[in-house]
Design a protein that fits this description.
With about 220 residues, the protein is α+β, with helices and mostly antiparallel strands. Helices cover about 15% and strands about 35% of the residues. It has 2 domains: about 10-90, Beta Barrel (Elongation Factor Tu (Ef-tu), domain 3); about 110-205, Elongation Factor Tu (Ef-tu), domain 3 (Beta Barrel), CATH 2.40.30.
Length: about 220
């Protein structure tokens, strides 16, 4: 499990189509790569991947991961080019504070960046307003002041109109993630709050529930 608090950024070194899965290789700080073991999970711009071919002593230090067909279909990773900046997060250790929200690293789909504008242009300490368009199928899981994961970053929804979501981005998040490198029209990995999905599923189950004599007997009534 992740929390959407980005630990550092990395850089795409290669995207290599193979027979079967496509492999990506990512350069990252040695302090992060050195904590990985083969088979560990790592979130790359919000996508939970399995670390392979870990080389903390290479220059730059690096690791690779294979992209399944589902990952290629749902996310941006197979479309990235060398030098692209990606967000990196290692799994949250058991017992650690949950600083963001529950992030699975299971991207639902991609959205389109519409704008990322400074609220106070020219100020070094300005915050930003991010606007993106998400698929209509995800709108029902997004609520004002609720959580959403964009490029692996745990963010809070400021407003939603139709399928356009607005998010307030603080200066630290802008500086410490790949948001600063993106431009309007870029595709973004989107994961909605999984708790909303479970709530919907439970609501659907309860809507079809009928109290019967056999149910009462089976449950000790």
């Amino acid at each position: 499990m992740f929390t959407g608090l980005i630990e550092t950024t990395g850089k795409i070194l290669a995207v290599t189509p193979q027979e079967g899965a496509t492999r990506i290789t990512i350069g990252a700080p040695a302090a992060v790569v050195g904590r990985l073991n083969t088979g560990d999970s790592v979130a790359v711009s919000g996508v939970c991947l399995t670390a392979l071919d870990i080389e903390p002593n290479a220059f730059p230090s690096r690791f690779s991961a294979d992209l399944a067909a589902e990952t290629i279909t749902r996310t941006t990773l197979a479309r990235l080019k060398p030098e692209t900046i990606v967000n990196l997060e290692l799994p949250t250790p058991v017992g650690s504070p949950l600083g963001g929200h529950v992030v699975q690293g299971h991207v639902d789909s991609t959205g389109e960046l519409l704008a990322l504008d400074p609220v106070t242009p020219g100020s070094e300490t300005t915050d930003y307003r991010l606007r993106l368009r998400i698929p209509n199928t995800l709108v029902r899981y997004v609520v004002e002041k609720g959580s959403i994961t964009i490029e692996g970053i745990s963010l809070t929804v400021a407003a939603i109109q139709g399928n356009v979501v607005e998010i307030a981005v603080i200066p630290h998040t802008h500086a410490a993630t790949n948001l600063r490198t993106l431009a309007p029209g870029d595709a973004l990995n989107v994961e909605v709050d999984v708790l909303g999905k479970y709530a919907e599923r439970r609501s659907e189950e309860q809507a079809g529930f009928v109290l019967t004599e056999s149910y009462l007997i089976a449950n000790g009534y």
